[in-house]
Design a protein that fits this description.
The chain has 265 residues and is mainly alpha-helical. It is built from 13 helices and no strands. The chain has helices spanning 2-9, 11-26, 55-59, 76-89, 93-119, 126-136, 141-145, 150-171, 175-191, 195-199, 201-208, 218-239, 255-264.
């Protein structure tokens, strides 16, 4: 038992388990074809298929499958990554799924680094156990296997980066760390606006982790509000519209919403 206990505490062992187990678990996704909704990222997407030259148009368009009448919010970062991917490799499912898997591993690595910083030496095994549970949880299967979910992976990756740099800035403030935290938050919102919910956890991480006092927590809260208001304003300026959903409602997507509409008809 002492050998096993010591092995669990070794950083190299923890890193190997956190990265290799999910890699083996999701390696079968590399042989998959494109799936439902993957046209939102790369499959037959007219703007993405313009490659790098299509990036200016992607910056002005909604997150959709090329149909300008559909609006699923403003998420240019995953679209830009898809345009670069198409420029380099063309439309190849293996490449798209490889990127999804690598992004998932990157989020696990970022989360592990952040939790080790957050808990420090007080709980040496807790970051490893928490990230391992997160990595192997079956709820993440769709996020890894569905290429469209690249927006979720990027949003979470940049959100964890925001948490990390915010904690570093709280420990020893510097303009570089503050800029990195704010920049990561902006990239998270531009990957998927639902990241605003995860970004709202930043002040809570700082407060309950004992990084800042309750009086100083107003600063991060103000930054979070400014980020989201700035995002909404950016969407209005660039797109001339809102970032809210404006698309046809399908029964299989939101059963309760459709039932409500039918009952009012």
């Amino acid at each position: 038992m002492p050998f096993f206990s010591n092995l669990l505490r070794q950083k190299r062992f923890q890193w190997a388990v956190i990265l290799l187990l999910p890699l083996l678990l999701y390696a079968n996704s590399l042989s998959n074809d494109y799936n439902l909704d993957d046209e939102f990222i790369i499959r037959d997407h007219p703007l993405v298929h313009e490659g790098i030259s299509g990036i200016p148009a992607l910056l002005r368009s909604s997150f959709n499958s090329g149909d300008a009448s559909k609006d699923y919010g403003y998420r240019p970062i995953p679209m830009i990554s898809a345009a670069v991917e198409y420029q380099l490799f063309g439309e190849k499912p293996f490449v798209s799924h490889s990127i999804s898997l690598l992004l998932y591993l990157a989020t696990l690595a970022a989360l592990f680094v952040f939790l080790r910083l957050f808990w420090g030496d007080a709980y040496p095994l807790l970051p490893f156990v928490a990230v391992l549970f997160f990595a192997l949880h079956p709820i993440h299967t769709e996020v890894v296997d569905n290429v469209k979910c690249r927006d979720q992976l990027l949003a979470f990756l940049f959100t964890v980066a925001t948490w990390y740099y915010a904690c570093l800035a709280a420990a020893r403030a510097s303009w570089g760390r503050i800029a990195a935290a704010i920049g990561s938050g902006i990239l998270a919102l531009l990957s998927n606006p639902t990241a605003v919910v995860m970004l709202a956890l930043t002040p809570l991480w700082l407060y309950f982790g004992g990084k800042v006092s309750w009086k100083k927590i107003l600063g991060p809260i103000a930054v979070w509000i400014i980020l989201y208001v700035g995002y909404e304003y950016l969407v209005d300026v660039i797109k001339g519209g809102s970032s809210k959903l404006d698309n046809e409602k399908f029964f299989w997507e939101n059963t309760l919403y459709v039932v409500k509409i039918l009952s009012c008809a």
